[in-house]
Backbone:
């Protein structure tokens, strides 16, 4: 186990740290520093040296890119005060600049500087100021140096050991002398009365990078290269069975014991075959083998891994299980524990063979008792208490034995101590009151019966905790089963004694005393005939036996107890990076290595556990067709630094066991990814095929199990960055989530909703819109919004995908990545709704083009505008974005189903574009939508716009807000061989401007003949709606006697703003300034007005 309490000046990965220290600031900021040095990592290698060397330059570049990325975000970096700096014993110029620093986290919290506590592996900047940007670090008046935290002092968690990149001159009193000595420079710019401080700014944690560096430089203890030699070979594809084992007929996994274990958990054929194939390696010592288990989404990979580990535990095969992340480690550990707890025969005995270790803060196991029972740090703390001589196992046991052997003696000891204490109290009272007759306090000394009951309860509870903790946390190799059986029997007898003692409440002191004292004479007829006596005698026999047959190790040092637990554990769980802690001298060899989510692990990171002492076989479980490991540097990405060992072996033709039945997705969801990514090799399990798996969370075909919902009017925005967002899609997502929540309130059926987008900016935008639903997660409705990378391994009842991209040329960026698409499309259980611009995706010539074509072929393609609520959400979003031109064209979704054709004047378009208040814009559009549907204000409520002139006969006014009115009239337009009534919208203006507008329109309307005026005034009513009238062009008569002549001019191009500066224009300018930040109180009539 890696010990961070460093006793000698050693820095793991020193050569890499020195490389980082060598970068001047300009090199850190140079993105292309290693561009020509980093070479692509090949699929095959000439030698082990060639293999190890291929990772070094990409690893250095990754550290470089990570440092630069963190330095650009230095404003958000955690900071703490450094209170002292001292040279270490082995400090030596010019390179070994070792120092000890001290910080005070509690004091930093009080000063609101944060709660940062530097950890081993942190790369920090030591400076006398808090940088606000990366440029602050290189200002002429500012100085800083880089340091690496490599250890802690055993006596204090607030004392750290660092290696500095430059010399720090220290004085006995650093605070007083810092002005002249800080960073080895004379600071002329500081005032003499200024109190200077020293800060540690966290730049990055290098722990994992350092461990990978040590792995590829053969610096890890153990140096087992047996399996690495196997994977370096060009012909890496292994045989299904070892030829020697096969010829000798060794088929141990087929014995009934193992087969019975496996079959009892009902695996499918592919899962059972994978487990048996791996377990069969246990007895093979002729070759080192690497097995691949291929687990596509939903195929029960975690169940298979759990079952494999459970079998390995049963046959006592010492195995390390790793995963790339803490969450993945917790998932597989939890799965294994669920199987183990179901099978335990003797309470929690057997859990001591399982260990989970890692960083407590990152694992976040607080409150999770199941995981805490196997967590190494917790286990060590528990065992340390019981290994101690004064309060441990031996003491707990002897106290109970002494009490049961002679309770009277124990009471006499108590009585004498109490008597002595009472005398002391009386003497104190005499001295205080100055009298020989002080008032005596009530004597609260317990009677014999009271003492026996209370004391027995306390010591029984103590021994019970001790026994349970010991058989829970000690490995079975250190605690024989017979001892555990005795412990459990003893605990049952002690519980019976407790019950018997409580039932003796009516017996006189003398009676209880006689019964207990008779126990001293084992042959006494009274003692033997008494149930109490019999129980005590039996219990004493067991406890005395335990005191002779079992003792705990004589260890008190935490590090020694850690080594004891790890050396005797059967199953160990940790991240691949943390497995470096197992590279210690004298570590008990491991037999198997199991790597879960192996396709998400960088190959050089998997080299850390692959070199552990004693490893004979490795089992990699993953899916190379899902996302690989995250890589910061684009240069390293292009060099295949993120490629996993799993993927490389597959590329070389290595055989893999496919798990071929999926249990997660409704068949309509699994159809496309199965066909596109897995060549239709995956079948649907019976549970997803049955009718009960088809669930409808919202009404309408658009919300079936699988839908592509096209949003044609979306707009991608980059906001100066590289990550786009699409606020129209975000609005549609928000509307769908709101509808799901409303349905949940009605049905009370639990539903989990996941929203996925490939782009971080879109994720943030959607999170802002749906964050209000997080408070309902405990009630059964939950919403999770994450990137594709964040959702890998996750699943929800309903998944909504926002593809974001919306452009005319089909450009979709990294959305085209097949692995990213695979992950996004395979997270849903019951419903998958994909939002995107169908036209853009069809032009992309990517997997998304295939998806859209497939959706159309399967009749799962829908336009969002076909759903009324979604159409309103889109409208509201377009208004917010100021894209009113989309809403005012002929094909606008607002008027597509309208009764009336609406034509807008240029003045109206200019007026509405100038309105900054989106709520008023929404109200204008709402009024327009009502008018186009045929709604009209009742005649008795209508006020004349003007009282004279031609406009008084045609012009209409509809109130929009307290300040604005919509001015319009009914006109006619020639279409093909017909004349049809239309709505002509002139402007949206204040009431005071309407007379001026009418006066200008009088000129236009005054040119209308009588028959034209009558055509405009014609009113055709159907029910409660007014509908447009249509007449043939050659008709000489109509319902009105006059012939109608259509307007010969395209009304949409008309402008009545002849004057250079009209009152309407003046209002628009005034409105821009007054309404820009002013919010109107508007009562909205439609759902999209509430968004």
Residues:
């Amino acid at each position: 186990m890696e010990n961070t309490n460093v006793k000698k000046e050693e820095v793991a990965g020193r050569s890499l740290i020195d490389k980082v220290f060598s970068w001047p600031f300009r090199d850190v900021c140079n993105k292309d520093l290693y561009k020509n040095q980093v070479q692509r990592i090949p699929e095959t290698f000439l030698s082990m040296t060639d293999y190890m060397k291929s990772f070094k330059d990409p690893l250095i570049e990754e550290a470089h890119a990570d440092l630069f990325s963190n330095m650009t975000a230095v404003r958000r970096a955690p900071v703490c005060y450094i209170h002292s700096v001292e040279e270490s014993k082995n400090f030596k110029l010019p390179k070994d600049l070792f120092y000890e620093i001290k910080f005070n986290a509690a004091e930093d919290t009080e000063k609101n500087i944060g709660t940062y506590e530097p950890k081993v592996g942190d790369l920090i900047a030591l400076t006398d100021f808090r940088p606000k940007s990366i440029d602050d670090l290189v200002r002429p008046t500012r100085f800083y140096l880089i340091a690496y935290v490599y250890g802690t002092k055993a006596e204090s968690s607030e004392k750290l050991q660092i290696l500095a990149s430059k010399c720090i001159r220290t004085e006995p009193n650093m605070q007083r002398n810092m002005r002249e000595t800080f960073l080895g420079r004379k600071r002329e710019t500081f005032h003499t009365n200024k109190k200077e401080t020293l800060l540690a700014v966290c730049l990055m944690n290098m722990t994992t990078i350092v461990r990978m560096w040590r792995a590829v430089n053969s610096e890890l203890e153990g140096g087992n290269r047996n399996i690495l030699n196997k994977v370096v070979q060009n012909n890496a594809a292994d045989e299904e069975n070892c030829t020697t084992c096969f010829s000798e007929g060794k088929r141990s996994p087929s014995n009934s014991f193992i087969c019975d274990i496996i079959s009892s958990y009902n695996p499918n054929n592919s899962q059972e075959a994978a487990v048996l194939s791996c377990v069969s390696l246990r007895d093979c010592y002729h070759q080192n083998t690497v097995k691949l288990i291929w687990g596509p989404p939903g195929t029960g990979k975690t169940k298979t891994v759990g079952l494999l580990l459970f079998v390995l535990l049963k046959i006592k095969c010492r195995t390390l299980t790793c995963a790339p992340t803490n969450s993945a480690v917790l998932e597989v550990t939890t799965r294994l524990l669920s199987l183990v707890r179901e099978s335990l025969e003797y309470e929690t005995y057997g859990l001591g063979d399982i260990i989970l270790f890692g960083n407590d803060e990152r694992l976040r196991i607080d409150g999770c008792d199941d995981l805490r029972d196997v967590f190494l740090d917790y286990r060590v703390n528990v065992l340390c208490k019981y290994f101690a001589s004064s309060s441990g196992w031996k003491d707990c046991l002897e106290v109970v034995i002494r009490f049961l052997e002679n309770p009277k003696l124990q009471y006499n000891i108590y009585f004498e101590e109490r008597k002595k204490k009472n005398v002391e109290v009386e003497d104190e009272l005499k001295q205080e009151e100055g009298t020989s007759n002080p008032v005596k306090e009530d004597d609260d000394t317990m009677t014999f019966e009271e003492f026996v009951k209370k004391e027995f309860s306390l010591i029984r509870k103590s021994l019970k905790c001790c026994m349970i903790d010991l058989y829970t946390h000690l490995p079975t190799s250190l605690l024989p089963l017979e001892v555990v059986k005795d412990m459990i029997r003893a605990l049952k007898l002690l519980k019976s004694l407790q019950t018997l003692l409580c039932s003796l409440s009516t017996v006189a002191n003398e009676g209880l005393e006689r019964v207990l004292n008779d126990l001293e004479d084992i042959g006494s007829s009274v003692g033997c005939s008494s149930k109490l006596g019999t129980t005590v005698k039996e219990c004493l026999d067991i406890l005395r036996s335990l005191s002779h047959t079992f003792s705990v190790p004589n260890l008190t040092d935490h590090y020694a107890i850690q080594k004891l637990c790890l050396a005797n554990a059967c199953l160990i769980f940790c991240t691949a990076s943390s497995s470096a802690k197992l590279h210690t001298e004298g570590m008990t060899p491991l037999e198997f290595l199991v790597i879960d989510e192996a396709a998400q692990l960088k190959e050089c990171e998997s080299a850390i556990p692959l070199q552990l002492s004693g490893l004979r076989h490795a089992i990699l479980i993953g899916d190379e067709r899902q996302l690989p490991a995250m890589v910061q540097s684009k240069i390293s990405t292009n060099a295949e630094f993120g490629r996993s060992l799993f993927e490389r072996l597959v590329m070389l033709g290595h055989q893999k066991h496919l798990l071929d039945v999926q249990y997660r997705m409704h068949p309509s969801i699994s159809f496309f990814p199965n066909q596109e990514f897995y060549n239709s090799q995956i079948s649907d399990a019976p549970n997803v095929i049955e009718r009960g798996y088809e669930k409808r969370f919202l009404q309408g075909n658009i919300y079936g199990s699988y839908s592509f919902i096209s949003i044609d009017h979306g707009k991608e925005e980059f906001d100066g960055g590289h990550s786009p967002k699409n606020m129209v899609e975000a609005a549609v997502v928000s509307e769908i989530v709101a509808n799901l929540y409303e349905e949940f309130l009605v049905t009370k059926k639990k539903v989990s909703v996941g929203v996925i987008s490939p782009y971080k900016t879109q994720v943030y935008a959607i999170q802002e819109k749906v964050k209000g639903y997080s408070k309902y997660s405990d009630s059964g409705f939950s919403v999770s919004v994450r990137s594709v990378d964040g959702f890998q391994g996750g699943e929800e009842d309903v998944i909504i995908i926002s593809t974001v991209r919306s452009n005319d040329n089909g450009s979709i960026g990294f959305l085209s990545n097949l692995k990213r698409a695979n992950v996004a499309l395979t997270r849903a259980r019951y419903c998958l709704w994909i939002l995107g611009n169908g036209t853009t995706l069809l032009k992309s010539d990517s997997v998304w083009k295939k998806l859209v074509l497939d959706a159309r072929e399967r009749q799962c393609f829908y336009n969002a505008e076909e759903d009324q609520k979604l159409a309103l959400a889109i409208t509201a979003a377009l208004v917010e974005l100021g894209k009113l031109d989309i809403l005012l064209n002929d094909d606008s979704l607002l008027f597509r189903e309208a009764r009336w054709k609406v034509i807008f004047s240029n003045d109206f378009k200019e007026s509405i574009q100038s309105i900054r208040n989106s709520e008023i814009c929404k109200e204008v559009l709402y009024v327009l939508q009502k008018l186009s549907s045929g709604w009209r204000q009742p005649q008795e409520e209508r006020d004349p716009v003007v009282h004279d002139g031609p406009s008084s006969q045609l012009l209409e006014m509809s109130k929009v807000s307290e300040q604005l009115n919509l001015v319009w009239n009914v006109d006619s337009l020639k279409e093909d061989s017909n004349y049809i009534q239309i709505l002509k919208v002139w402007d949206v203006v204040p009431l005071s401007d309407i007379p001026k507008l009418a006066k200008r329109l009088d000129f236009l309307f005054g040119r209308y003949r009588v028959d034209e005026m009558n055509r405009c005034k014609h009113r055709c009513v159907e029910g409660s709606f007014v509908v447009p009238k249509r007449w043939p062009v050659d008709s000489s008569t109509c319902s009105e006697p006059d012939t109608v002549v259509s307007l010969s001019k395209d009304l949409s191009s008309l402008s009545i703003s002849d004057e250079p500066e009209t009152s309407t224009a003046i209002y628009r300018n005034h409105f821009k300034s007054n309404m820009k930040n002013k919010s109107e109180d508007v009562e909205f009539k439609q759902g999209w007005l509430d968004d």
